[in-house]
Specification:
The chain is of the alpha/beta class. The chain has a single domain, classed as Rossmann fold, CATH 3.40.50. Helices cover about 35% and strands about 20% of the residues. The protein has 7 helices and 6 strands, in the order βαβαβαβααββαα. It has a 6-stranded parallel beta sheet. Helix 2 links the parallel strand 2 and strand 3. The longest helix is centred in the first third of the chain and has 13 residues.
């Protein structure tokens, strides 16, 4: 039987408790073997807003997942230049790991964009999409997507960056190790 791997992509700028809760809920609900957190280089649907290096994002993500034996970091997209298209990444991963079954985790906010995803028809044959609920978004789609209800936690990396710029607390929004890393490296201060 093939191992089932969930892929949770994102900018993780910085990684926060919401990311970990989503991963844990999907892991157990879908009976996956592992979750791979995949920081992306340049998502096609977002304007680049981050202020820290890929190395910092990667280090924070490793700190965030280090105490969960089924959570791992997959840095494949950070070594590629330009926009990160899920189809291209999943093609590489599927060819590199033919003995694994991949599940791609998205928020309900991304479900409505699926028709616009690069090579979506080929992609849905490669991976099982799993959508998690997000406030004010619906999971309506024609695509074969599984749904997982997760606790509604309205935390975003943008909120954390904003709080840090204002000198406000991010306690309990990120893991303590991530908070310490941010403070020690003076990240998000400007």
């Amino acid at each position: 039987m093939k191992k089932k791997i969930g892929i949770l992509g994102g900018t993780f700028d910085p990684p926060h408790i919401g990311h970990l809760i989503i991963a844990n809920e999907v892991l157990h609900h879908e009976k996956l073997d592992e979750i791979w957190f995949m920081p992306n280089q340049e998502p096609p649907h977002k304007i680049k807003t981050g202020t820290v290096s890929n190395e910092n994002r990667l280090q924070m993500l490793q700190l965030a997942v280090q105490d969960h034996k089924q959570f791992h970091v997959q840095p494949i997209e950070l070594s590629r230049k330009g926009k990160s298209y899920t189809y291209e990444t999943m093609k590489i991963l599927s060819e590199s790991y033919p003995d694994l079954l991949f599940h791609f985790i998205i928020g309900a906010d991304m479900v409505e964009y699926l028709p616009k995803w690069y090579k979506i028809e080929e992609l849905i044959k490669m991976v099982q999409f799993i959508s998690v609920n997000r406030p004010t978004y619906k999971n309506d789609t024609e695509y074969p997507i599984r749904y997982v209800e997760v606790p509604a936690i309205n935390i975003s990396s943008n909120l954390i960056r904003s709080r840090l710029k204002k000198g406000e607390s991010i306690q309990y929004l990120v893991k303590d190790e991530v908070k310490s890393y941010i403070e020690e490296n003076g990240l998000y201060e400007t």
